[in-house]
Amino acid sequence: MPNASPPAAAKPLPGPQGQEAAPAFSPLYQQIKALLMKSLQAGEWRPGEAIPSEMDLAARYKVSQGTVRKAIDELAAENLLVRRQGKGTFVATHAEEHVQYRFLRLTPDSPQDAGPVQRRFLECRRMRAPADVARSLELKAGDAVVMIRRLLLFAERPVVLDEIWLPGQLFKGLTAERLGEYQGPMYALFETEYGVRMIRAEEKLRALAADGPTAELLQVTPGTALLSVERLSRTYDDRPVELRRGLYHTSAHHYRNEVS
Amino acid sequence: MPNASPPAAAKPLPGPQGQEAAPAFSPLYQQIKALLMKSLQAGEWRPGEAIPSEMDLAARYKVSQGTVRKAIDELAAENLLVRRQGKGTFVATHAEEHVQYRFLRLTPDSPQDAGPVQRRFLECRRMRAPADVARSLELKAGDAVVMIRRLLLFAERPVVLDEIWLPGQLFKGLTAERLGEYQGPMYALFETEYGVRMIRAEEKLRALAADGPTAELLQVTPGTALLSVERLSRTYDDRPVELRRGLYHTSAHHYRNEVS
DNA sequence: GAGTGGTCTAGACCACACT
DNA sequence: GTGTGGTCTAGACCACTCC
Predict the structure, then answer these.
(1) Distance between CA B119 and CA A66 in Å, rounded?
(2) Is residue A198 part of a domain?
(3) In chain B, what residues touch A259 (CB-CB under 8 Å)?
């Protein structure tokens, strides 16, 4: 459907000159991308669902299909959307087979050692945020948080000890029981039950020596070198929503990474 | 230089039906991308130089500018090319300020501790490849390799001990002296002096305890937990061209990573 | 066959860099 | 101003999926 002045309406400050040094020019497709992101954040389309077709979106925003396409391309590149030729474009979800362990980069040294991962929850309780946790999660010191401790076992052997901190505000009814019942990745639980979707994360890795209690849980001798992985996960709007501190026993597994 | 029948010749089996179940369809822009990659590999344009403009390339390959653009877009996304609006598209190089330490992901815990990195070469000699090194570099056991040992210092303190293995075939005149003379990143030296360009790398991270000699070099007590980073770097055609084993002292620095 | 994403084209205009 | 990459459009056709 043609329209009177589509580029004009959307265009960024073409008339009066910017009052600042930075004219803040933004391409149309970036504006469309921002609108799509807002809809995602608002839950207009839920994880796993299809978003409207490119043609529909083009009509809705009064731009050409190519412009919508470029916006979607970027969102797909950021893993927020998934395109499927012939079917549609879908909101990415953590509840899918082939993306199950997108965030867990630990791999067995010998591929044939790959096996199902077992989880064992050690603790789950609500408490006031310690100062460092509050700072990372951008909460006020003393705000409510949920703390979870968990063991990951590969081939019956404990390999990862995780300590997970979540803003209490966002995870009201989260209990050890609900964690235990749920099958599938934790991030899928967060997304379906609490509407909190982890989008991206920053990790800080270092090596440190196992202390006594940790050594016992991971079945290593105290002082064993462990890989420490501190992850801060964020949602759509870049708010931090999870702090995860993991200790990995890397005698038969390693953390894989690609750099380019 | 134009050629007789590029699109026709390049087009994917439009006439006769494929004889197999998989028709091996390949979009035009992927074929253009492959041609560009071949030119890069052949050194038709050297690192830092501009490649022909999109219009020129479109004329050369007898396709539209948009098709060339999409091919270049992908190469730019893979960090093989760098686009600069108003100037042209350039072959990526390791010899640039803002990409200096693209492959070194170690960061000081406190940003204000950021400072110049010093290098100290401990050893550089040619030898026969040990079995494990040969396997990683896809050489025959006993082939010539260059082995380099090097210390990296942040703020005068040793933080990284690297052991670097290179195929002797590719690095004929490489000596400790030339390494010491050269200013700038090692990968820039490799690319300008030996025509070997590292494109991407896989890393395996783990934690382990410092042995005696290592501890002395890194000025830690033996047994200190160190971050082990084993990196295998590859060139354009995915051939491995460097094996690097690093030990990082992570008491005041960490390895940063983003996951999405 | 209808609908979806994927490719390709051609042309217009904009933003940026150099000269 | 000229040339480069960057954006936007409109239309045609292809490949894939489902009915």
Answers:
(1) 50
(2) yes
(3) 102-103, 105, 200-201, 203, 231
Write out the residue range of the structural domain in which residue B187 sits: 97-255
Name the domain boundary from B32, B66, B91. Answer: B91
Chain-centroid distance, C-alpha B185: 12
Nucleotides of D under 7 A from a protein CB: 3-11, 15-18
Render the burial of B134-148: b for 16+ CB within 10 Å, e for the rest: bebbebeeeeebbbb
The reply to whether B154 and B239 lie within a common domain is yes
Do B212 and B249 belong to one domain? Answer: yes
CA-CA distance, B71 to B34, in Å (whole number)? 9
Are A218 and A185 in contact by the 8 Å Cβ rule? The answer is: no
Which are the contacts of A205, defined by CB distance < 8 A and separation ≥ 6?
A227, A228, A229, A230, A255, B205, B227, B250, B254, B255, B256, B257
* Region A77-97 average pLDDT: 93
Contact A254 B79 (CB under 8 A): no
| Helix (H), strand (E) counts: chain B | 8, 10
- How far is C-alpha B129 from the geometric centre of its chain's CA atoms? 21
The sign of the CA dihedral A32, A37, A39, A45 is: positive
Q: Cβ separation of B223 and A226 shorter than 8 Å?
A: no
Question: Which of B103, B224, B259 shows the shortest C-beta gap to A259?
Answer: B103
Across the range B204-210, mean pLDDT stands at 98
Nucleotides in chain C near protein beta carbons (<7 Å): 3-11, 15-18
B194 assigned to some structural domain = yes
pLDDT of A161 > 90? The answer is yes
Q: Is residue B167 part of a domain?
A: yes
A80 to chain B nearest CA, in Å?
Answer: 9
B135 touches A: beta carbon within 8 Å: no
Q: Are residues B84 and B103 in the same domain?
A: no
Above 50 in pLDDT, residue A9? Answer: no
Nearest nt to the CA of B27 via C1' is C7
User: Does A227 contact B227 at a Cβ distance shorter than 8 Å?
Assistant: yes
B54-61 helix and B28-42 helix, angle to the nearest 10 degrees: 110
Give the residue from A78, A80, A206 with the most B CB atoms within 10 Å of its CB, the best one to mutate.
Answer: A206
Q: How many domains does chain A have?
A: 2
Question: Distance between CA atoms of A247 and A210, rounded to whole angstroms?
Answer: 9
Query: What pTM did the predictor assign?
Result: 0.89
Please, which residues have CB within 8 angstroms of residue B114's CB and are 6 or more apart in sequence?
B107, B108
